[in-house]
Amino acid sequence: SYPNALRSLLDFTDKETTIKVDKDPRIFRSFEDEAIFDCPFIYVNYVDREEWKFTKKEVKNLKRYLENGGFIYIDAGINSEFLRKDKRAGQHHSFADWSVTPDLDEAFKEVFAGKKFKSLPRSHKLYKVFYKGLPDPTVLPDTVRTFVVNEKWPQGTYSAVGLEVNDRIAVLCTP
């Protein structure tokens, strides 16, 4: 659905971080593929998967993958309620609605019963790994400050939710 998303992410990661990325990514059709265990980082565009119900093998593989240090980033894994009837709407929504989509929430309950996606506060260490953190909104012009604080950083977050496994973010979802 967004053909340049993965390429942009790989280029940015290669340019801006010390993480070594393969710019010729592997494409998996499902989490049943054992080759996922060769990849420490998996990118998924939410709208590219028709059904967010995992098979028994996917549940088994995902649990093992995430418990052993794997990381999954789900792009467009947060969307507004009014868009949920049409997956093609994808990312076109208000950032202020920062809940994980219900089908992702249900799917990952099959992998880790009792675990929930939680919004990441602006102070979360994830935002400080390569940078000093998110910008200080007080330096923004009056004309955009309210919009940015209310839409981009709702309730002190930055429109991101994470699922923790072994005291680390293992699954990250953003709009």
Q: How many DSSP E strands? A: 5
Please state the structural category.
alpha/beta
Count of runs of 4 or more consecutive helical residues: 4
Strand composition percent: 15-25%
What do you see in this structure?
- This protein has 175 residues and is α/β, with parallel strands linked by helices.
- 26% of the residues lie in helices and 17% in strands.
- It has helices at residues 5-16, 56-67, 102-111, 142-152, and strands at 41-45, 71-75, 118-121, 157-165, 168-174.
- It has a five-stranded mixed β-sheet with strand order 1-2-5-4-3, covered by helices on one side.
- Helix 2 links the parallel strand 1 and strand 2 (71-75).
- The chain is globular.
Short description:
By secondary structure, the protein is an alpha/beta fold. Helix content is about 25%, strand content about 15%. The longest helix has 12 residues.
Which terms summarize this structure?
alpha/beta, 26% helix, five-stranded mixed beta sheet, 175 residues, globular
Q: Which secondary structure elements does this structure contain, and how are they paired or packed?
A:
Layout: H1 5-16, E1 41-45, H2 56-67, E2 71-75, H3 102-111, E3 118-121, H4 142-152, E4 157-165, E5 168-174
Parallel strand pairs: 1-2, 2-5
Antiparallel strand pairs: 3-4, 4-5
